[in-house]
Amino acid sequence: MKKVLLSLSACLILTMHTLQAQIPGGICNWDNDKKAAIVLTFDDWSPGHYPIAVPELKSRNLVGTFFATNSTGSYSWPQIRIAAADGNEIGNHTKTHPHLTTLTPAQLNDEIRAMKISIDQNITTQKVTTFAYPFGEYNAAVLDSVKKSGHIAARGVQPASSYPYNFAATENAYYNIATYAMGPTVTIATFNGLVQNVTTGGGLLTFLYHSIDDATTSHGDNWYSQVKQADLQAQLDKLVSVKDVVWITTFSQAIKYHKEKACATLTQTQVPDGTTWKFTLTDTLSNNTIYNQPLSIKLKMHGVNYMSVLQNGVALPIDRIRNDSILFHAVPDKGEIVLTTQLITSTKNMQAASDNITVSPVPSNGLITIHAAKTINPSSVIVSDLAGNILFHQPHVSFADDVQIDLSGFKEGAYLIHIYEGEQLITKKAIRVN
């Protein structure tokens, strides 16, 4: 068994005056307070996407959006289900990749709505919410059909000249999102420059890939604007290197976050009293089934040691505590948010989750090992003393292997290990001895 040793840069400050107080913080522009967002999109489900793009993304823990069409009969639902299971988005690129502006209303409906229904029926783990125009062509009738068939955004083929955060000033602007087309002439220097530009601008950058194949084109993917596997690898490696500052996500998640944030309000309902702080998070979007993307909230704690964050009575993972600020996710319209200095767990039955986690040895003179009998999702791990003072915090810890924490620098005594499993907070005791 392997063991792992744990050793919105621009966040909008909302000025609410609820209870005559200003909230010291607010909703971050992007997930986990990242500076910008980047989306990788792949059109047509061409022959190189499944054998090359899908595993190259997975090996780096990256995701993208595959706008699939069945124009050549190359569709393989089992393969597409595997891509979706890896966390990739499957978007709508029509049934036969036609010139949409030449079609009748009935034909548009068959190409757009019917294809969305087909994908939803075959990929049951997600719902289609985004669209890519074949050839980048659309008019008012096409846009109307895309909207009415249940898509929240669409991607074109034209590049952006800059990458500001307010890239969609109107609702229709979300249905012509710019993109940078990748091909054999795009150098890694150009790619890196684009990444730097969006990081500086704070907005959204989408890349558009078509054919992808290896050096000898062994998969026969020379449909259009082929990118070699080695070049794709270099580009993905660059994205891995900037993951701490740029959110690499799917098209749907980026658009949902941006739309929700644009109309969300964080309202203070109880001023901090040294132990408790309360808020509501609401937005003006009517479809909470679609718009359920968690938003990152970053707040200044002013020296108060908040141990728990709850929404509607359910414990939320704390993503980061640093420089007297706390960062966590919450979903708009999902109930009151409470920050408290108490260690409070979810109202759900926690016995099964608690039994799944063991900490050993107890006592320990140095390393302790956290073991999950059943694999859990990446979780936050916090070590506190019995008074609730946080001494160690590591977000997004993978429990695919055992996790180790070195207590050798701690004083002798008892400590609490706090681990989130889903919506539940599990607490275990550790004892440090010499």
Automatic annotation (TrEMBL):
<dbReference type="InterPro" id="IPR026444">
    <property type="entry name" value="Secre_tail"/>
</dbReference>
<feature type="domain" description="NodB homology">
    <location>
        <begin position="36"/>
        <end position="235"/>
    </location>
</feature>
<dbReference type="GO" id="GO:0005576">
    <property type="term" value="C:extracellular region"/>
</dbReference>
<dbReference type="Pfam" id="PF18962">
    <property type="entry name" value="Por_Secre_tail"/>
</dbReference>
<protein>
    <submittedName>
        <fullName>Polysaccharide deacetylase</fullName>
        <ecNumber>3.5.1.41</ecNumber>
    </submittedName>
</protein>
<dbReference type="Pfam" id="PF01522">
    <property type="entry name" value="Polysacc_deac_1"/>
</dbReference>
<keyword id="KW-0732">Signal</keyword>
<dbReference type="InterPro" id="IPR011330">
    <property type="entry name" value="Glyco_hydro/deAcase_b/a-brl"/>
</dbReference>
<feature type="signal peptide">
    <location>
        <begin position="1"/>
        <end position="21"/>
    </location>
</feature>
<keyword id="KW-0378">Hydrolase</keyword>
<dbReference type="InterPro" id="IPR002509">
    <property type="entry name" value="NODB_dom"/>
</dbReference>
<dbReference type="InterPro" id="IPR051398">
    <property type="entry name" value="Polysacch_Deacetylase"/>
</dbReference>
<dbReference type="GO" id="GO:0004099">
    <property type="term" value="F:chitin deacetylase activity"/>
</dbReference>
<dbReference type="GO" id="GO:0005975">
    <property type="term" value="P:carbohydrate metabolic process"/>
</dbReference>
